[in-house]
Amino acid sequence: MAVVSDQFVVSNMQTVRRRSSPAFDQGFRWASYGSALIVLAVLAGIIGSMVYGGWPAFQEFGFGFITSSIWNVGQDQYGAWVAIAGTLTSAVIALVIGVPISIGIAIFLTQLCPPWLRRPVSTVIELLAAVPSIIYGMWGLFVFAPFFAKYVQIPLTTIVEGMPILGTVLYARVPSGVGMMTAGIILAIMIIPFIASITRDILDQIPTVLRESAYGIGCTTWEVMRYVLLPQAGVSIIGAVMLGLGRALGETMAVTFVIGNANRLSLSLFDPSSTIASRIANEFNEAAGMQMHALLALGCILFVVTFIVLALARLLIAGMKTH
Amino acid sequence: MDNAAYRKASTTAPAPWGRVRRSRYWADRALKIVSTLFTALGAFVLGWILLMLLVEGIGGLSPAVFTETTPGPGTEGGGIANAIVGSLILTVLGIVVATPIGVLAGTYLAEYGKDSTLATVIRFVNDILLAAPSILIGLFVYMLMVQPMGGYSGWAGGVALAIIAVPVIVRSTEDMLRLVPGSLREAGAALGAPMSTVIVKISWKAARAGMVTGVILATARIAGETAPLLFTALNNNFWFSPTLMGGVSNLPVTIYQFALAPYQNWRELAWAGALIITLSILGLSIVARLILKKDKVR
Fold first, then answer.
1. Which of residues 224-253 of B touch A (CB under 8 A)?
2. With an 8 Å Cβ cutoff, are A132 and B281 in contact?
């Protein structure tokens, strides 16, 4: 059937000629060139709209916009520090929890897993990335937070109460399960699939000879990982971690559900806080005037930070491929 | 018994090596156990989330969910028919806008631009957009379309989703086209076919399964996006206007609003919606993998 239809097209010279006319060829080239430029235009548009929209806020508050922790809609005074600190803290918690787990998963998939199990386990881990952010938010708020409050926060609070530093950092005034720590844990789960699958690919790219010669002189799996594979893959794994960090910084819906959305600086990891993304999601639709400019300025700061982090991530991961 | 004795003997080696052997053994053991446990933890979390959705969502599923519109505050019953239809329209709109742009841009990178400076820059920018915070894309489209047009619209929502889908399609198209052997293209060119014909009839044809997979994965990605719709399509508790002007109801934002609401029936609808949306997205992701796997086997 396919053969017949191919012949038909070839014998019908008119069709062939029309399709491969120089005009079509040129048009196709320009269309793909134009589409590629759209990608550039989108990035430029995002930067441009953030800077344009946030400019009045930067002008009004100057450098103090970043360092001030006041966010008062009534008095029209805005400062970004609480949101910036919240964004950074939640992302750091996510990395501290998520990176060891991701690397462990990558080690399991590349070194320990029997071949028949590899594909299903990889798929399961990658499906974690397909679950929508809002579902993580619902799971975090309705299932994980009560569980976390009951089995971690309340026992921990009674233990650390009165201790010098731990008594502040791990003390939950209202053990509801909602707060910075829960947001960090949810973010960790969300970035694990990204870091794990890139680390797996990096470990797979290392020539088998290296690994096998290490096993050949009697190294254990730990020694092969620690002294052969990790030094080889180190820089790229840092790149994968940066990519995870970039995702954690900008994650919105899941964080909005579980972080508690309070504008206050607190030393306790169990207290509610907010991030740049959660504040924008919460306030932008009702914002007008200076509040809107301030939110766009927050978006501008978020964009600059994620841009730097993601650009570094890409350079570090790409460095591996050329070697 | 014998087995236990054997294992003991093999872990505690002869005297001169005893200490070293033991620490090496335990380091190795610890690594293996911890990595396996971490992997199990990942699978466990996915299972936990799916179980939660099934337990909470199935109770809320009823024919009314698919036939009635979202209920007002304090109203009994209701469904999410308008949200489901709205989500389908927005997702299709996004993917219809994104597919030609994404495929052509990916084609440019793989076939025309290759290692030129412009192509390198675009590849770099595309990778950044791939992981850029989706809420910023919502803000951008708000400034680009909602403000000038004077109101929220489904068109703005579709464009916001398209901006998220384009980088996914660009990346997968380029990756798949790069797998096509150069000799195939040369064979086409040797027959006198112009570049566009070589690309359309040879490269695209050879990479078809991978490119379709990319589009399906992009669909799965945008179907559950909430943040970019908050400021563009907003939401609507009624049937939206057929011109898509004004708020267009959609599942993610409906789930967001209903899950946090104080009304019991709203919460049940949110769970039903969450179940529907997650199963569709996971289904799409699995179908995409199967297409690619089948192509590889062939």
1. 224-227, 230-231, 234, 252
2. yes
Contact A32 B111 (CB under 8 A): yes
Give the domain CATH number at A162.
1.10.3720.10
Q: How many domains does chain A have?
A: 1
Question: Which residues are CB-contacts of A196 (< 8 A; sequence separation ≥ 6)?
Answer: A101, A102, A103, A105, A106, A109, A125, B42
Query: What is the value of ipTM here, to two decimals?
Result: 0.89
Residue of chain B nearest A46, judged by CA positions: B140
Pick from B266, B268, B244, B257: nearest CA to B87: B244
Residue ranges of domains in chain B: 63-293
Region A170-187: what's the mean pLDDT?
A: 88
Superfamily of domain B63-293: MetI-like (1.10.3720.10)
Parent domain of A101:
81-285
Decide if A121 is inside a domain: yes
Q: Does A38 reside within a domain?
A: no
Question: CB of A213 within 8 Å of any CB in chain B?
Answer: no
The model's pLDDT over A211-242, given as tens digits with 9 standing for 90+, comes to 889 988 888 888 888 888 888 888 889 999 99
- Asked whether residue A252 is domain-assigned, the answer is yes
Tell me the whole-structure pTM to 2 decimals.
Answer: 0.89
Phi, psi (rounded to 5 degrees) for A78: -130, 135
Interface test with A, best of B161, B213, B226 (most A CBs within 10 A): B226
Distance, CA of B215 to CA of B96 (rounded, Å): 10
Q: Among A121, A189, A221, whose Cβ lies nearest the Cβ of B45? A: A189
